[in-house]
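USER: If only I could read backbone structure tokens as easily as an amino acid sequence. It would mean a lot if you studied the pair and described how this chain folds. Here is the record:
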Amino acid sequence: MEFYENRSGKPFKASPFVLMYRLPYRLWKAWRLRTKTRKILSQLSAEQLRDIGLDCEDLRRYK
């Protein structure tokens, strides 16, 4: 047997305690990314938004 074949599995990888903290963190991270994106896009002019295929109404709907 090789070294990597004889190692035990990671016992706390899918633990409920780890999952309890992972989901809120991922939700917070996604919310933060949307907030940053919305802030950057709101600073662009109408012409710049049109260049990337958006309009002002798209920004209002983006949450």
